[in-house]
């Protein structure tokens, strides 16, 4: 059955969706995207995703002509029209269509497209077994805090992971882990969760933010600092977070087994708490 998608104000069957070949997202990668999770037919932390969308657009001087309320309404309508119980909603906004020129067009109207993807997230089999990660050099640009549609670096890293029999790639720069190709990287030492500080080098993960919002309900503490691959290999636990993987245990990095090779109690507990909040709409209000 064909999905209903959203293109510039219209809800359409996916096979009828079209944008201009002159759209700047297609020619220059001049656009921003977000992916919001849906669990139990409800959006998870959508307001936080839209706040990040607004920030990213502001950083590239792309004015959003839609209010947050309007964007939430489109999300909810797509959930309804596609009977989406669990999965994600992809949103992409570009600077619009104009004849090819690097400088910003003066008369282009932003393009907005959105679509749903069904995905088993709350009971994903990988959560029970853990995932494998490979490392590779971080070859991306200097503004990784902007959620740009320009994703060639992560695409190449993800392909390397797939060809290596892994499910995620960790990007390494200056001897330390920056983040996953599509996730935030964490290690656990004792009762301390460790993830690197926010900066232009990493995306400010919404699931990361959610985990930190509910950490007060646990006996875990948080240490914000960089860490090396060697430190990750010696950690008691390793996990990643993202909108679609939620909290996902990592059991192997570059062929080296983490601890006993099974998902650890910390990641399991954090995932359980996250799912409890997600079913109520999220941990961020």
From TrEMBL:
<comment type="similarity">
    <text>Belongs to the class-IV pyridoxal-phosphate-dependent aminotransferase family.</text>
</comment>
<dbReference type="GO" id="GO:0052654">
    <property type="term" value="F:L-leucine-2-oxoglutarate transaminase activity"/>
</dbReference>
<dbReference type="InterPro" id="IPR036038">
    <property type="entry name" value="Aminotransferase-like"/>
</dbReference>
<keyword id="KW-0032">Aminotransferase</keyword>
<dbReference type="GO" id="GO:0009082">
    <property type="term" value="P:branched-chain amino acid biosynthetic process"/>
</dbReference>
<keyword id="KW-0808">Transferase</keyword>
<dbReference type="GO" id="GO:0005829">
    <property type="term" value="C:cytosol"/>
</dbReference>
<dbReference type="InterPro" id="IPR050571">
    <property type="entry name" value="Class-IV_PLP-Dep_Aminotrnsfr"/>
</dbReference>
<keyword id="KW-0100">Branched-chain amino acid biosynthesis</keyword>
<dbReference type="InterPro" id="IPR043131">
    <property type="entry name" value="BCAT-like_N"/>
</dbReference>
<keyword id="KW-0663">Pyridoxal phosphate</keyword>
<dbReference type="InterPro" id="IPR001544">
    <property type="entry name" value="Aminotrans_IV"/>
</dbReference>
<dbReference type="Pfam" id="PF01063">
    <property type="entry name" value="Aminotran_4"/>
</dbReference>
<dbReference type="GO" id="GO:0052655">
    <property type="term" value="F:L-valine-2-oxoglutarate transaminase activity"/>
</dbReference>
<keyword id="KW-0028">Amino-acid biosynthesis</keyword>
<dbReference type="GO" id="GO:0008652">
    <property type="term" value="P:amino acid biosynthetic process"/>
</dbReference>
<protein>
    <recommendedName>
        <fullName>Probable branched-chain-amino-acid aminotransferase</fullName>
        <ecNumber>2.6.1.42</ecNumber>
    </recommendedName>
</protein>
<comment type="pathway">
    <text>Amino-acid biosynthesis; L-leucine biosynthesis; L-leucine from 3-methyl-2-oxobutanoate: step 4/4.</text>
</comment>
<comment type="function">
    <text>Acts on leucine, isoleucine and valine.</text>
</comment>
<dbReference type="InterPro" id="IPR043132">
    <property type="entry name" value="BCAT-like_C"/>
</dbReference>
<dbReference type="GO" id="GO:0052656">
    <property type="term" value="F:L-isoleucine-2-oxoglutarate transaminase activity"/>
</dbReference>
<comment type="pathway">
    <text>Amino-acid biosynthesis; L-valine biosynthesis; L-valine from pyruvate: step 4/4.</text>
</comment>
């Amino acid at each position: 059955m064909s999905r209903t998608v959203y293109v510039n104000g219209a809800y359409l069957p996916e096979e009828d969706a079209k944008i201009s070949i002159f759209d700047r997202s297609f020619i220059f990668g001049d656009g921003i995207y977000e992916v919001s999770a849906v669990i139990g037919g409800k959006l998870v932390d959508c307001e936080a995703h839209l706040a990040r969308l607004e920030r990213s657009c502001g950083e590239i001087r792309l004015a959003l002509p839609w209010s947050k309320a309007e964007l939430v309404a489109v999300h909810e309508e797509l959930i309804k029209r596609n009977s989406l119980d669990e999965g994600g909603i992809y949103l992409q906004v570009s600077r619009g269509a104009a004849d090819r020129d690097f400088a910003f067009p003066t008369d282009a109207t932003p393009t907005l497209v959105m679509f749903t993807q069904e995905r088993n997230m709350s009971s994903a089999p990988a959560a029970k077994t853990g995932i494998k990660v490979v490392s590779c050099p971080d070859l991306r640009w200097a503004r990784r805090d902007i959620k740009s549609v320009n994703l060639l670096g992560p695409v190449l890293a993800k392909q390397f992971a797939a060809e290596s029999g892994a499910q995620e790639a960790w990007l390494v720069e200056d001897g330390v882990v920056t983040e996953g190709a599509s996730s935030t990287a964490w290690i656990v030492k004792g009762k301390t969760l460790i993830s690197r500080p926010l900066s232009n080098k990493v995306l400010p993960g919404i699931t990361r933010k959610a985990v930190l919002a509910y950490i007060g309900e646990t006996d875990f503490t948080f240490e914000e600092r960089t860490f090396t691959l060697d430190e990750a290999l010696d950690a008691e636990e390793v996990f990643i977070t993202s909108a679609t993987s939620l909290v996902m245990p990592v059991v192997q990095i570059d062929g080296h087994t983490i601890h006993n090779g099974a998902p650890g109690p910390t990641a399991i507990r954090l995932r359980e708490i996250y799912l409890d909040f997600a079913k109520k709409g999220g941990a961020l209000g």
